[in-house]
Amino acid sequence: MRLVVLALFPLLVTITACGDPPPTSQPDAGADADTGLCAGRPCRTRIATEADWAAVSVPHPADERCDFVEEAKFIAPATAAAALQEVVFQDLEAHRLHLDFMTQVLPEYFGGLSGQAYAALVQRRATRQYYAGALYRLTDAAGATTGYGFDVVVDPSWDEQLTEAEVSALGARLSQAFTLPLRYAPTTPDALVAAQQFQQPITHFPRSCTLTTCPDPATDCIVVPAAVSLCGHFSEGRTIALEYAAKTRLDLAAATLSFPRVDGTYPVPPLFTGGARGPGQAPITPVVGSAEVEVRAYPANNYVDRTYRQRLQIGAVTHELAWSLYLPAEGGGLLVAEPHLTGVPAAVMAPLGNTSNDEVALLSACAPRHQRWQVRGDIGDGAGGGFTIDVQYQPPAAGSGPLFPTAAEVRLGGQTATVSDYFRLVYAGEHHNWNNQYWVLFATPLTYAGHAVHGLWIDEEPFSSSLEQARTLDAARQPLEVLPVTGYEFAFVPGG
Q1: Are strands 385-393 and 403-412 parallel, antiparallel or unpaired?
Q2: CB neighbours of 398 closer than 8 A, spacing ≥ 6?
Q3: For the ranges 46-50, 114-118, 342-346, which has the lowest average pLDDT?
Q4: How far apart are CA 20 and CA 190, in angstroms?
């Protein structure tokens, strides 16, 4: 198994801070009152004690980063020209977003700052005057605090990722305001890839949240602590109609499956108990007695291949599911649970004897945790029409990145359709997330131009994220009229 190495060498990039809790709060025991910039404001300019940290931090929400337990945010000057030359730590309980904090708490510096101006001021190298980012309390697998980490908000473009020199300079600047043990802790895939090449500063990499211990330490296991589902994700090269036909949800029951650590094929109870596939949500049923785990060791490569297999029935067609269990060569357990399913390799299901891309289901998290992006535009229908499609997307360095629609709102002819059903949100990326197409299928039709509309079809230009056309769909998902759309964009949502 390829695991990211956890580099936790002692980088005591110390930072000093100062500030009061919000005016409505009582001062924390041991925390000095801020007599400077943050006096009477929900922020601090010095973090020197646990009490200082507690005054600005909140619990980190459950996600794929099990090494983060609490979080805070900071703003730091990036140039000598920046009007604010102090590092400021915002009280995250009072203001969750950087922009809200900046405009409402520090209006003398940032009053009236727009989202677009914020992006220029913070996210892009050519116009950056400030760094803005997050801070995290870091813990090991036993829950013990190992220090603190900082991350930085940048434009998601690859060429905007911070260089080693920029990270080091920011760490040195933060060290003037934060005296607890601190190191760089990037969170996005691009930043993690870049940081693997750094010599300094020492970087905290994610630890795996999908490994667990087994009831019998002499065996390997799969642990599903609570019932959960896997959903089919797009496969490059399929049309939007094929993606719709291939949509699949499989359900797993709570279970612990143990199996030997030596070569062989071992019958096990079935993990997958049912599900649904395609436009009619055809029921999926397990084939009795078909579940097994195959173990094959490759000592020369210090690698052990472990694969779970199970057959499932959809109508008259038998499908086989194969799931590679990425575990260390020495063994262990795979944890299958939210919010860490994004880090579990996809299971692959296809009809027996037919592995055509048209039929394959790539099954992963039903609530993936990547970056939040939005497809949005205005519809010139004279009634305030428009649409937004929320997606979880991870821009790739090359090829295709995972992209999964999670919700949509369509306003058309004075009516609104809100959609969050997995089977009614369809994405097709025909080549490297280009020529993207989306279907938003309504549970109840809208009325437009005198007829029923059952969905919206967004079709982008080949090799770009520009809109080629947007059309309404009939009950059979066939295109109707072309809609007049302006302001179309596929955009990253900061803080999402």
Answers
A1: antiparallel
A2: 432
A3: 342-346
A4: 35
Retrieve residue 212's tokens.
Answer: 């667990």
Residues 168, 172, 178, 182, Cα dihedral to 10°: 30
Structure-block tokens of residue 287: 């084939």
201 prior amide bond cis, ω within 30: yes
Given a contact cutoff of 8 angstroms between Cβ atoms, the answer to whether 109 and 101 are in contact is no
What is the C-alpha to C-alpha distance for residues 452 and 350, in angstroms, rounded to an integer? 36
Q: What are phi and psi of 442, to 5 degrees?
A: -85, 140
Whether the bond between 21 and the residue before it is cis, its omega within 30 degrees of 0, is: no
Percent of the chain clearing pLDDT 70 (strictly above): 92
| Sequence-separated (6 or more) residues with CB below 8 Å from residue 213 | 332, 333
Tens of pLDDT, residues 460-474: 998 888 999 999 999
Give me 28's structure tokens.
């924390």
CA dist 134 and 75 (Å) reads: 9
Q: Where are the domains of the chain?
A: 43-195, 212-365, 371-492
CB count within 10 Å of CB 267 equals 10
**CA–CA gap between residue 135 and residue 150 (Å, rounded):** 4
Instruction: Count each helix (H run) and each strand (E run) in the chain, helices first.
Output: 7, 31
Contact status, residue 366 vs residue 230, Cβ threshold 8 Å: yes
For 177-215, give the DSSP string.
Answer: TB-S-EEE---SHHHHHHHTT-SSS-BPPPPPSSEE--S
The answer to whether 405 and 438 have CB atoms below 8 angstroms apart is yes
The contacts of residue 119 (CB under 8 Å, 6+ apart) are 155, 494
pLDDT digits (tens, 9 = 90+) for 161-172: 999 999 999 999
β pairing state of 68-77 and 58-59: antiparallel
Residues in the chain: 496
